[in-house]
């Protein structure tokens, strides 16, 4: 039993080390490459364009650009981040992000990235990168109490993940009517 306790202690220390060693320096973003060889670039682009134009829930959206020739869609979205004040009351900060999509005949790549925050509601034209905003929060004297830097980073990560899940779910439900390869052409099936 005396030998087992130190071994268990070392095991717990080793398991806890990766979590403790993680840094908060990684950029907040979500990028995924999805193979989709059953659909061509036009079908994938049309589906992504429809999502960005009609189902994008992170508005107001701006800079919506869709190019069928290159298979790209891009849009800027808006979210709310909520640090807290000294009394624990939510403060609302507007943030912007970029959604980018590129289709090929082999699949598609999409990303949610480039988060920027309006740190002062009185100056809505002033945007700073999320990393710069997190540095501002870290420098606040009450950050040990509020943990706003971690709170806001977690919120931004959660939103990036939600956007990605929403988009991927929509892309996974491509109706067969949008894919031209389903069924036989009318001229071939008419003679049988």
UniProtKB/TrEMBL annotation:
Keywords tagged on the record: Signal
Entry-linked InterPro entries: DUF4468 (IPR027823)
UniProt superkingdom: Bacteria
Any Pfam family the entry gives: DUF4468
Residues of the DUF4468 domain: 30-116
First and last residue of the signal peptide: 1-21
Protein name: DUF4468 domain-containing protein
């Amino acid at each position: 039993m005396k030998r087992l306790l130190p071994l268990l202690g070392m095991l717990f220390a080793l398991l806890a080390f990766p979590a403790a060693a993680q840094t908060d320096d990684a950029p907040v973003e979500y990028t995924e490459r999805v193979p989709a060889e059953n659909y061509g670039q036009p079908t994938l682009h049309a589906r992504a364009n429809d999502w960005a134009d009609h189902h994008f829930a992170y508005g107001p959206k701006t800079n919506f650009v869709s190019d069928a020739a290159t298979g790209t869609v891009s849009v800027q979205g808006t979210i709310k981040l909520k640090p807290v004040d000294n009394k624990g009351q939510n403060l609302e900060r507007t943030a912007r992000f970029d959604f980018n999509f590129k289709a090929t005949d082999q699949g598609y790549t999409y990303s949610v990235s480039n988060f920027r925050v309006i740190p002062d509601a009185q100056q809505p034209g002033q945007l700073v990168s999320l990393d710069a905003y997190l540095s501002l929060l870290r420098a606040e004297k009450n950050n040990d109490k509020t943990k706003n830097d971690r709170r806001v980073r977690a919120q931004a990560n959660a939103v990036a993940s939600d956007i990605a899940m929403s988009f991927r779910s929509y892309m996974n439900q491509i109706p067969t009517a949008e894919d031209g390869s389903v069924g036989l052409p009318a001229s071939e099936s008419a003679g049988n």
